[in-house]
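Researcher: Here's my situation. A collaborator sent me these components and asked whether they could plausibly form a single complex. I don't have experimental data yet, so a predicted model of the whole assembly would be a useful starting point for our discussion.
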Amino acid sequence: MSAPDALRPRPLYGQFPTALRFCVRDQTRNRLAALLLVLFVPAWYLMMDALAGHTTLDFKLYATGQVLHIDGGHLTLISAGLNSVTMIAGFVVFDAVRKALAFDRRLVYSGYRHSTLIGAKSLAIAVVAGGIALYTVLAVLPFWRPGPGGWFAVYAGFTTIALAYGALGLLLGVLVKHDLEGFFLIIMGGLMDTFLQNPLGNPLANKPVLQCFPSFGPMQFAVGGSFGHTALWNHLALGLAWAAAFATIGLVIFRIKTRSRVRTGA
Amino acid sequence: MAQGSTPAPPPVLQARDLHKSYGRHPVLRGADLTVAPGQLVAVVGENGAGKSTLLKILAGTLPADRGEVVLSGTLGYCPQAPVLNASLTVEQHLRYFAAAHRLPDLDRGRELVRLLGYEQYEASLAGELSGGTRQKLNLTLALLHDPDVLLLDEPYQGFDWDTYLRFWDLVDDLRTRGRAIVVITHLVFEQDRFDLLADLTDGRLAPRTTSRKDHHVGA
């Protein structure tokens, strides 16, 4: 019934490139998210820039113990950017994963390798998260021009938090039963997480408890790079660890939910 | 097609002693089904009799509490509600599933689209198709790799008369090429089309005697 592998004709479409292309397409067809990205991000910067003022704030870099005295307006732009990225990246991935779950299950039953589909999905999330982070960090330039190194640090921080919340979107997409639960957890989680890191809005900022939140590492890296002229790679890695943890749990659940139970006889 | 003294071909799909309960409510209580190559089987039952549960277990998408399903060969499964991706076109669906099945070309997919009469929608997004056309695409995806066993859950819901006739032409073609087909339905309009009709009652499958051939069902 099945020909030996050597005699089997070459497949017309490779599983990985096909899945990657369609996963990216899935995640970039969310018009509401695109609208949020294009309009909400600059509007959010504009509002936060107007509200925050330019009082000097103390911000503690945990890696060095150094307390920076920095412009509160610029710091608020970083936390506003982080907040936008958490919401949009989380929403895009959650919506796409949730809508495609039954379809992905069908693909796996039809012969798609789990590892291939998971790899393509993960890479698609990384590509989309990187794109969202790039736009968000470019949109900050009309309000604030850090040096190239500082700008790169903010970009790296935004990309890392986009990956973490994209992975959280994946986890919630395969886990929760209703759309509203996922949207609520992403929006409220992102808002609380990023708000707490900024000493302008949170008198408890600079306290050790902040280290338990996903945006802690990216915020430290972005502020350290743009104001302290130091690259806190360990803190960037901490943000990536959150992304890896969310993604691993989400992909394990995805694998369990898409496995087949039929025994194939001889 | 008379069997005569030739030995019966080995079954291509065999389900033994399937049990399934939802909470304290038993749905399947020892259902058995044996399907031979080229056989067309209808599983008939009232609403809530457990037909879709049985088909999901046969397809491997739902675990049974007890019993087993053994499949020899490839399986195609067409769920009752179309499982499609609204943001992909018909053509992209064919490519995605061709990659899943590692097919060397899209010839069979294009042939099925033509046989079911919806080639004008190849570039349309699945989310913009009518219910009947979505069902045609749903069926096409199940048939794309020319499976040895095809499981169809209420396959002709939403089909117009012309598509209904095209569907049976397709089924006849599959049967003559030795493909087995299991259709789950709550209404059977043309009983003589089937080799075997099996009623799902009280969680078990019982063969009707009015089918056009004498095929074995149950253990």
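Model: Some features of this prediction you could bring to your collaborator: Chain A has a mean pLDDT of 87. The longest strand of chain A covers residues 56-60.
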